[in-house]
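Lay summary. Proteins are chains of building blocks that fold into shapes, and those shapes determine what they do. In this project we predict the shape from the chain. Here is one chain we studied, written as its sequence of building blocks.
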Amino acid sequence: MSSDHTPPHPPFARWMAQTNSVTRTFLAAARMPDMINLAGGLPAPHTYPAQELAEIAREAVANHPTDTLGYGPIEGLPELRDALADRFSTDTLTLTHANVLITTSGMQGLDLLGKTLVDAGDTIATQFPTYLGALDAWRPRLPVYRNMRLESPDFMPERLMAGAKFAYTVPNFSNPTGRLIPGTIRRHLVQAAHTTGTWLVEDDPYGGLLFDGTPLPRLIDISAGILGTDAPYQGPIVYMGTVSKQIAPGLRVGWMVAAPEMIEALALAKQGSDMCTSGLTQRVALGALRSGLIERLQPDLCTLYRMRRDALCTALDTYLSDLFEWEVPVGGMFVWAIARDPTLDTDQVLHRAMQAGVCVSPSSVFDAEGTYRAALRLNFTLNAPEQLHEGIRRLALACKP
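And here is the predicted shape, written in a compact code that computers can read:
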């Protein structure tokens, strides 16, 4: 005999009420007919080196069946860890495999940081505005955020980082602003990490996408210079990278470089997350690194993305210069357009833009409080110049109801 009344299910976790659906929206936008997606940090699919990766994968399975098809070490394949340690070692920075953890994408690295360091109510100091994927990753930990406005004249990193479990930065072509953090600020951040003992996260998915000028030193290199020792790195910087932006995001291979004690703690957290990153994709990433694939792809990739950046900025000049201001980024994937009228609500602009056939990222999702609504993040890497022009034309219509 069945009952007409089913008791209610237990409620979902509290943090679920605080999340947003924007990431799901702009990933889905890629499959909507006639929708121009300017929202996501997505590479151009035609740049994926499919044939080269297919050959590397074939050889990997044939020659390393246990590595590619079986379970692997939680920390990652030893050969890949060694290769990355060699890749990022410099005259002042000494790394070994004990300094490297392989992650299932950069996003897993962010999730592991939260699991390893943050309890409910703990403070995270974040570069503001903040990458929305990082905010999504840490939301279940129920942290308190302390915004760091790195370009502010009164920026005091020691005061902002003191007492935080860690500080989070994207120094190279920051997500969402696209800015390259100057060398002076980099040194101040690193010195503050050494002074306060606070872990300083350097998230660097875009560092290889430099279009103009010369690279600036990594935070971890600056830190190694302060330590002044030939011993393997033991400092407070946690450096993060990925193959997603320079090879292909579908590989889902990233890495974390840090002091061995941090790597051990992160590996313990990873054990309860996915046990190990795919051995197949690790072997593919290793083959790509050993063959110099990234270095061969980089010049053409930067030329393509520089052209698309210029096309987007030209379209902004044509259609939206009266409503927004922006800086032309020297690399990366994004232009950060700030409304000249601070009362413009870009959450509302997003809804009208979707109706007009263009998807953009409103600034509210890059603010832990969700209150900053006067800017847009615009991606230029996914679309061809003519689509960028049309997308900005549609966006202008949405901004002028």
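What the prediction tells us: DSSP finds 14 helices and 13 strands in the chain.
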